[in-house]
Amino acid sequence: MRRTSGSRLEQFDEREIDRVEAIVRSMTPHERLAPKIINGSRRARIARGSGVHVSEVNGLLERFAQAQKMMKKMAQGGMPGMPGMPGMPGAGGGARKNAKNAPKKKPKSGNPAKAAQERKEAEARRANAAKALPTGAAFGQQGGDFDPSQLNLPKGFDKFLGK
């Protein structure tokens, strides 16, 4: 029983939620993640599994695609014709700006001798960085030799320690 006046919320049919839920639950996990893969035979299978017509599955997928486009536009800086709706910082639109302003890595040399020298320098930097890290510090041990006999391990477990 629908009223001719009133808000859309009052006119909303609760059964629509049940139909949408049935459609989504009839999809495979992969189809939910990548709805673009849903072809005609998949749509028919989803419709049979949810007890609706293929046109309802098509309508849901179409509404989802439209909502996805709108959210992308909003994340990129608002939508035209919507006053007071500036771009939402932190909603995904700012990531590209930061990538553009980030300092670029030094390009590798086209000269084979110079490229070999750059590789050697990079390996030396990595080796020095590895030496600077204290061993075992991540687990609370501050340097020194590690004695596994102090761990009170089960019998036969020492074969896993590499001794």
Characterization of the model:
The structure is a single chain. The protein is an all-alpha fold and 163 residues long. The chain has a domain at 11-78: 434 Repressor (Amino-terminal Domain) (Orthogonal Bundle), CATH 1.10.260. It has 7 helices and no strands. The protein is elongated, with a radius of gyration of 30 Å. It starts with 7 loop residues before the first helix and ends in a 31-residue tail after the last helix.
**N-to-C series of helices and strands:** HHHHHHH
Mean pLDDT: 76
* CATH architecture group name of the domain at 11-78: Orthogonal Bundle
Largest sheet: none
As for the CATH topology of the domain at 11-78, it is 434 Repressor (Amino-terminal Domain)
| Radius of gyration from the alpha-carbon trace, in angstroms | 30 Å
Estimated share of beta-strand residues: under 5%
* CATH class (first level) name of the domain at 11-78: Mainly Alpha
Assign the structural class, choosing from mainly alpha, mainly beta, alpha/beta, alpha+beta, or little secondary structure: mainly alpha
| CATH homologous superfamily heading of the domain at 11-78 | Signal recognition particle, SRP54 subunit, M-domain
Count of discrete alpha- or pi-helical segments spanning 4 or more residues: 7
Question: What key phrases describe this protein's structure?
Answer:
163 residues, 0% strand, 7 helices, 51% helix, mainly alpha, 434 Repressor (Amino-terminal Domain)
Per-chain topology:
Elements: H1 8-11, H2 14-25, H3 29-33, H4 40-50, H5 54-75, H6 94-101, H7 112-132
